[in-house]
Automatic annotation (TrEMBL):
S-adenosyl-L-methionine binds at T165, G186, D208, N251. Its EC number is 2.1.1.-. This is Ribosomal protein L11 methyltransferase. It comes from Lentilactobacillus rapi. The keyword Calcium does not apply. It catalyses: L-lysyl-[protein] + 3 S-adenosyl-L-methionine = N(6),N(6),N(6)-trimethyl-L-lysyl-[protein] + 3 S-adenosyl-L-homocysteine + 3 H(+). It comes from the Bacteria. InterPro entries: Ribosomal_L11_MeTrfase_PrmA (IPR050078), Ribosomal_PrmA_MeTrfase (IPR004498), SAM-dependent_MTases_sf (IPR029063).
Amino acid sequence: MDWTEVSIITSSEAVEAVSNILMEDGATGVSIEDAKDFDKLKAGRYGRHGEIVDPASLTHVATGAIVSAYFPNNKNIQTKVPEITKRVQQLSSFGLNPGPAEVTTNAVEDENWRTAWEKYYHPVSITRMLTVVPSWEDYQPKTDFEKIIRLDPGMAFGTGTHPTTQLSLQALEIVMHGGESVLDVGTGSGVLSIAAKLMGAGNVQAFDVDDVAVKSAKKNIDLNPAAKDIQISANDLLKGIHEHVDIVVANILAEIIVPLVPQAFANLKVGGYFLTSGIINDKYDLVKQAMVDGGFQVLESMKMKDWYAIIAQKPKDEE
């Protein structure tokens, strides 16, 4: 299968809003080249073999940012480019500088997929315990308690680099103690399911409506032997699923979280946790109210840049 890379030249301040536009059109993750990120870097081990490199010598954008996402050609993304361009330009009405707002597309052959990702994707420490590492990197744990999630971004992103994924992983680390049963809804790359297993989860089931994502997640599970018993299948949210689990986790768009709320409530044990992310700033109140109306108690809200995650619980006095 071949792919279409959609890249948007924008400003640093509009990166999160532009990322959200691409995600709403079907991307489950994005890559970001931001000039401000390089402004903060000092000389460090950025070379492919761990050698010291001066950030000034690295090839990067000089100003603004480029936000990119990859779509399979069967998504008809070319027809959406005019609308994507319009939405990016309209960010100025929300007080954001859209920058040049130039949207370009580029065909990427399947065999060049890894090459397209290697320039963006490097080991990322997400929490004190979890580090996400691309499958082609020779990376060894720095401490005894560091746990490595090996991923190939493949066709359904969720590489750990986006704030929504990082928030989800942090939320899992907060509530997990070991032995929990978990449902991962909209699994994408499978990163959350794999992380749950590494943190000691018992039975983990992962679902995604996209068959491409399911295949990608299965490949990533194979890269992580500790996660080999994760059960994964195609499904529309939790329709037709009748379980009794400790945790339901979903890193999906806010509009999709809302119809998931009653399904999650029905599949959770009393006292079970509902962890959600993918909630852009202006949709936070919508999701929080849907959870409260659905019977959940909101325990904690977490924020990274313009994104929220919510830790909610099925009340312990619920019969």
